[in-house]
Specification:
The protein has about 220 residues and is mainly alpha-helical. The chain has two domains: about 90 residues, Tetratricopeptide repeat domain (Serine Threonine Protein Phosphatase 5, Tetratricopeptide repeat, Alpha Horseshoe), CATH 1.25.40; about 80 residues, Tetratricopeptide repeat domain (Serine Threonine Protein Phosphatase 5, Tetratricopeptide repeat), CATH 1.25.40.10. It contains 13 helices and no strands.
Length: about 220
Amino acid sequence: MWLAVLLAVGSSLALTADPIAEALAAEQAGDAARALQSLDRMIARNPSSEIARIEAARLRLKLGQELDRAEADLDAARSVAPENPRAHYLWGLLMEERGRRRDAIRSLELAVLYRPEYPDARFRLAGAYFSASDWAGAELQYRELVKLRPDWTQARVQLAATLENEKKLTEAERELRQLLAEQPQSPLVRRKLADFYARTDRPQLAAKLLHEPKKKMRELNRSKR
């Protein structure tokens, strides 16, 4: 009787276990091969599982291998779940990898349409527009991204670069100066603003910024205790 109970409990646990979570745990443990095998088995058992297909495609993109298989999985996932933003985001990454920029932009646009608060997708979309010299498109996406993630330094630096390319020099300088005021110890921001000054024929400001001594912390009086 106890054996039957144990078998029943074991069967129940097997049914309630999350195979996706197990595959992701294997990936986190550094065993990508086992993670992919597990995901591929799930796809074989349930071809309509868009989550398994998306995770398998993501992992193959991450590893840079079997991209044709990743493409097939994402194509199937987008058919099963046409409004899944992750499927469109990963398809956009794959299209970038294939050198198909227009297709990448279209897919990344869908990703942020279905999930407006998707910062990774919006960052890649802004970058795709920037690479295509579509400054208006890049500015729009970087501004939306900065609203979502004002702490994302690279996004704000890229926004300034986009504004500079649009000849909006006052706005570009304002963005960089504001960023430096918020992050006075950031070598990246300091260098970007100095480079901006150099490009806009203000070498003295650039030199001053690069050689400005760091502020020392004020020494506090020792406690009398």
